[in-house]
Design brief:
The protein is α+β, with helices and mostly antiparallel strands. It has a domain at about 70-225: L,D-transpeptidase catalytic domain-like (Beta Barrel), CATH 2.40.440.10. The chain has three helices and twelve strands; from the N terminus they run αββββββαββββαββ. The protein has helices at about 1-25, 135-140, 195-200, and strands at about 70-75, 85-90, 95-100, 100-105, 110, 120-130, 160-165, 170, 185, 190, 210, 225. Strands 10-8-7-6-11-2-3-4-1-12 form a ten-stranded mixed β-sheet, covered by helices on one side. It has a two-stranded parallel ribbon with strand order 5-9. The longest helix has 25 residues, at about 1-25. The radius of gyration is 38 Å and the shape is globular. InterPro entries: LD-transpeptidase, LD_TPept_cat_dom, Transpep_catalytic_dom. Pfam families: YkuD.
């Protein structure tokens, strides 16, 4: 009986020890990470959000234009109404008539030999970052050209375009600002992207555009205001 009592007390001590270990486990500090009740359930992992589309950045192709080709207000006397655009083809200028004997003058690139033209048109459409579809006449001369190019910094029409009447000609920007002041186009009139944005903001559909002929060798009529 004594031996039985000793065994029972040992059993009780072992049981109390197990309870003590369990109590210690459940009385761990609150900062400790709790054990999962059902470890066979894996935690759900949230899917990463889709990447945010980033607008393409305009390529920095700025160049230092000669002083005469930089955008500036000049004295310019004309009978044309304010808001009229006058293209001085021989001197590679575009004038936006302001009135009171003044105009905003921009340096432009014009058509190469054999591709200049003259006459009066109106702006019939405006577009920001326009797509480019070369006309059949241009593709016939340059069959390597793309048949269509989406708008963007690499597009030769640049940041803005103003379409002239029902012709194939436009006043537009360029991704080659070093061509301002030269004769390289197929008849379109190009400005730097910064200048074409400025002009675009000042004119509207219906604006009158007068293109002077290349044979009009008059002196530069625009005098810088000092």
């Amino acid at each position: 009986m004594f031996n039985s009592f000793r065994l029972n007390t040992r059993f009780a001590a072992a049981a109390l020890g197990a309870l003590a270990i369990g109590a210690t486990a459940f009385s761990a500090p609150a900062t400790a990470a709790p054990l999962p009740l059902f470890p066979f359930f894996l935690p759900q992992i949230e899917a990463a959000p889709p990447p945010v589309a980033v607008a393409p950045q305009e390529e920095d192709r700025s160049v230092e234009l000669p002083a005469r080709l930089r955008r500036q207000v000049v004295n310019y006397y004309t009978r044309e109404a304010p808001g009229t655009i006058i293209i001085d083809t021989p001197n590679t200028y575009l004038y936006l008539v302001l009135g009171n004997g003044q105009a905003m003058r921009y340096g432009i690139g014009i058509g190469r030999d054999g591709f200049t033209w003259s006459g009066t048109q109106t702006i019939t459409r405006k577009a920001e970052w326009p797509a480019w579809t070369p006309p059949p006449e241009m593709i016939a001369r340059q069959p390597y050209l793309p048949r269509h190019m989406a708008g963007g910094p690499g597009n030769p029409l640049g940041a803005r375009a103003m379409y002239l009447g029902g012709t194939i000609y436009r006043i537009h920007g360029t991704n080659a600002p070093e061509t301002i002041g030269t004769r390289v186009s197929s008849g379109c009139l190009r400005l730097t992207n910064e200048d074409v944005k400025d002009l675009y903001s000042r004119v509207s559909v219906g604006t009158k555009v007068i293109v002077l002929p290349m044979t009009d060798r008059r002196a530069d009529l625009g005098r810088t205001i000092r």
